[in-house]
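Entry 12.
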Amino acid sequence: MKLLMFDTEYFWYETFRKNLEQADDAENEERIEDTAVVFIHSEAEDENRRNKVLKSAVSNLKWYLNKVGKERIVLHSFAHLSSSNSSPEFAMEIITDIKEKLASKGIDVRTTPFGYFSEFSIHVRGESLAKVFKEI
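Predicted 3D structure (tokens):
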């Protein structure tokens, strides 16, 4: 799994086009202020180490939120951080599980619609920790 984490002033997205037929229908537009945004890429090998990946992802995201002083996070599936891709079903399930684990700890968690290309705008802060990449 790859995590590309940003400390943002805002993240705006709008669904553009469905790219997975099995995805739920969604037409969303949302602007989320003062949030961490994470581009998540799940890899084929993650399917065989699901529990370890889930635990490590949640731990890393909690660490990042603490470092940047945020209580809100946006999880965005982004299948462009590696040449290895998990199945879409696994990617959707692991993002849902990460969301549930973080929410159970009192974190405000949002997700962009899975299975869609989205148009987005992001204002990333300038500090060094405003941009962090993690490989799990």
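Annotation: The mean pLDDT is 94. Helices lie at 50-68, 88-103.
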